[in-house]
Amino acid sequence: MKALGKVVVALGIAAVAVVGGSIALEQAGVETPLNAARNGAANAALDATGLKEKADAALRANVDRIAQKTGMPASVVEGAIDSLDIPSWQVTSVPAGATATGTSTIDYEGVGATVTTYDDPSVVTIDTGAGAVTMEVPPSAQGYMGYLGYL
After folding, report:
1. Which among 53, 51, 75, 84 has a CA at the least distance from the CA of 151?
2. Is 2 within 8 Å of 68 (Cβ atoms)?
3. I need a surface site. Which of 10, 68, 145, 148 has the fewest CB within 10 A?
4. What pLDDT score does 141 carry?
5. Helix 63-70 to helix 51-61 angle, to the nearest 10 degrees?
6. What does the alpha-carbon distance between residue 17 and residue 2 come to, in Å, rounded to a whole number?
7. CA distance 30 to 9
8. What is the DSSP string of 59-72?
9. What is the DSSP letter of 97?
10. CA–CA separation, 104 vs 93, rounded Å?
11. What is the pLDDT of residue 108?
């Protein structure tokens, strides 16, 4: 019985060390197995909700409004939406050394979000007030991040 108690205590200490170490490494911008597992679970949940497809559809439904706000022709806005390729975005972590460069507040049908951009254009963080998630931005979309304020 004493041996079992020692094993349980040792496992508890090991778990605290692994989780604590992973958190410290994550805060330093180092990808860890725990972080990768969390991001993988978040991607699966996000894919199951269909939210990325809904966001893409909302942009497409507002092409004329976006064109008016940006002064771009509707065909250019449609091309930008195609390049954003929102359905391919994945949950990730902010890379080590990335610094926030700006925020945009977006409101659609009463649902608001704050989008933070970084000096590393491969990521954005979206905060809905219920929680924040960092998304990997595909290379085809990175040039369009400056237009977020028009949405």
Report:
1. 84
2. no
3. 10
4. 86
5. 60
6. 22
7. 28
8. HHHTHHHHHHHHT-
9. T
10. 19
11. 67
Identify the CA nearest to 148 among candidates 119, 128, 124, 132. 124
Q: What is the average pLDDT value for the chain, to the nearest integer?
A: 75
Beta bridge mates, 127: 114, 132
Phi-psi label, residue 118: left if phi above 0, alpha if psi -120 to 50, beta otherwise: beta
pTM of the entire predicted model: 0.67
Any idea of the CA torsion for 94, 98, 102, 104, to the nearest 10 degrees? -20
Dihedral of alpha carbons 135, 122, 139, 125, sign = positive
Amino acid sitting at position 42: A
Locate tokens 């978040």: which residue? 42
The tens digit of pLDDT for each residue in 51-76 reads 888 888 888 998 998 899 889 899 99
The DSSP symbol for 142 reads G
Gap between the Cα atoms of 146 and 5, Å rounded: 57
Phi/psi of residue 30, nearest 5 degrees: -95, 125
pLDDT at 24: 47
Distance of CA 38 to the CA centre of its chain: 13
